[in-house]
Amino acid sequence: MGNVLLCLDIHEEMVVAVALERSAKITRIIGCVQVDTLQYSFAEAIDQVRQELGVRPGRCRITLGAELFSFRNIDLPFTGKKKIEQVLSMELAEQIPVEIDTLLFDYVVTKNGLQGTEILAAMIERTFLAERLAVLQAAGMESEFIGVSGMYLPQILIDKGQRNFILLDNDRCWATLFIVREGRVVTIRSLAGRVENDVQCTIDERLDLFVRQTLLGCHFPQLQDTGNILYHTGPTPRLSAMSGLVVKKYGANFTLGLSIDPHSESKCRSECLDRVMACGLGPDKHPGVLNFCKEEFRRKKTFHYYRRRFVLLGAPILLSCVLIGLYFNQEYRMMKAQQESLRLQIAEVFTATIPTTSRIVHPVQQLQVLVNEVKSTYRPGGISSLRYSVIDLLTEISARIPVVYSVKVVRLVADAETLLLKAVTGDFNTVDNVQKELKKSPYFKEVVISSANQGPHGDAVSFELKLVLAGK
Fold this sequence. Notes:
By secondary structure, this protein is α/β, with parallel strands linked by helices. It contains 10 helices and 18 strands. A 6-stranded mixed sheet has the order 8-4-1-2-3-14, sandwiched between helices. A 5-stranded mixed sheet has the order 11-10-9-12-13. A 4-stranded antiparallel sheet has the order 15-16-18-17, with helices on one face. About 25% of the residues are buried.
């Protein structure tokens, strides 16, 4: 089940509604209905729309007939959206007989230039709009767009490359005239209405008169180079030769390529649905279309709104979290493998160093304990002595005797005060150098050569040093 969008076209005498089910693959018309509001109140008409369409409350787009609006063309000597919005209310207040605060207005730019800006503004009574929206809100319909009926129709021709033309959105009781110049709607006029007792003037005659008067008042000669093309929806208007217009049927077929519910196909008359379908299939926001869903009539952020935003934003966030989780899991597995490899290497070194240890739990701590035991055991004067251990003395002697000296230690005897070192080297000079180097050590306060003898073959010198330990 896709998202269901309800499109309502509201006029004084009727309400036309279409329910569209949108999915990723197809848009389907699941219902359409037309209700005569001359026989029902607006609330009753909306209730009948809900019953006949059988759709749940939700999102909807609303268009109101042009006869319910008042339109003005205004020239301003400057450009910029901020400046226009600052002065527009004052400009409109000078042209209307009521307080501007009682009206809701919107505008579209019809021409931009160095000399200024031309705009088309539309106004509607706030109380009238509030009453209609209150009925829709009570029916559970969330208005996400409030526009002028049929205004999406010329935008479709503009998108197809038509730049200058007239569009007559025509129905049995009314008609709306759109004049397009340079790809922008510059004029909107509601031309005809129901006249119950006028038997001397037919609707066609009155429409012909209104079209000619509107074109003359809107500088229609500027459209002469386009061939004076007039597109129309609904019944073909009977216009006199004085109008000088080439009349063509509006060519957009909105049901083409759409799936239509079999139960609704018989009710889908194109002359009734063109303006509704154009609004339903159009983009959410269009710079050339008036939208009165603003100020106090702005769509309220409901649970459905936040749920939709959560889905749109939550999907990439969830995907990012999954990717980050997979990355850290891979890093953890690699670190775990490295840790296990290091543990095996430590165990191998530990076993090679201390083969008598059968159980390795904490190798660093165990090795530290063994080193401390060795230091305590091999300390001259016993464990209670405060002097250096044998390991300390051997380390110091090894560090003091340069590597270039060929010295081989044969025997080392230590007690609490002295250290006797017997070794073999190549000559007597080395013996003297070793003595000098060891005297530099703070470990020994005296170093004496006890003996130094040449070997029987003259190739080695055996010597013995007596090292008196310094205090620690």
